[in-house]
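Section 3.1: Structural characterization of target chains.
Under the original work plan, the team committed to producing a structural model for every single-chain target entering the pipeline before any wet-lab resources were allocated. The record below documents one such target. The sequence was received from the expression subgroup and is listed exactly as submitted; it comprises 192 residues.
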Amino acid sequence: AGGDQLWGIPGSCVDDGTSNLVCRLNAVEASSGGLAYGYGLFSQIAILEDTPVVVFYDNTSKTLQAAYANFSGSGDMSAGFSVQGIGCGDTGATGYHPNIATNGSDFAITYQGSSGETLELYQGSGLNNLFAGTAQTIDEGARTSQQILVGAYSNPIYLNNQLYILYADQTNNDIVLIKKDGDTWTPTSIAT
């Protein structure tokens, strides 16, 4: 019957014409960008105020999404999640390669914006502000004469309440570590 599952993988079982039951996996439809359609691409999880928080890319709406559990860390998972689009980006798909860091009360979500041409940061304080954070562009990807892909595989981390972000920069095929000094983000190339 259509919709049956084989080891938890969506598929269907049909008669092959010789009275043998054959199970086939449903094909995943790819977008023009080569990514599967649907929710949950590049998903990441963290704990904020004893509550699971998930960030992911939604390829149907081309946006970054966040979700928080409607239960605490040891609660009943059947309570579900609250989900909403977050962040911003100039044009194109926004939200590739998201990652999230928390320091107990603050959160920082990094991701690629503008179809991979910028590194974006969405941050705030407290679970109640997950859908009301502020967004800013950390690296606009603009170099002397061309637009460069930046921000892939970003990884934010708090160290002594100072936010650091590690990310890929295609300018020289660098790995960059960046931190905020006052109002300025200061990058350091780690490897080229």
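The chain is about 0% helix and 55% strand.
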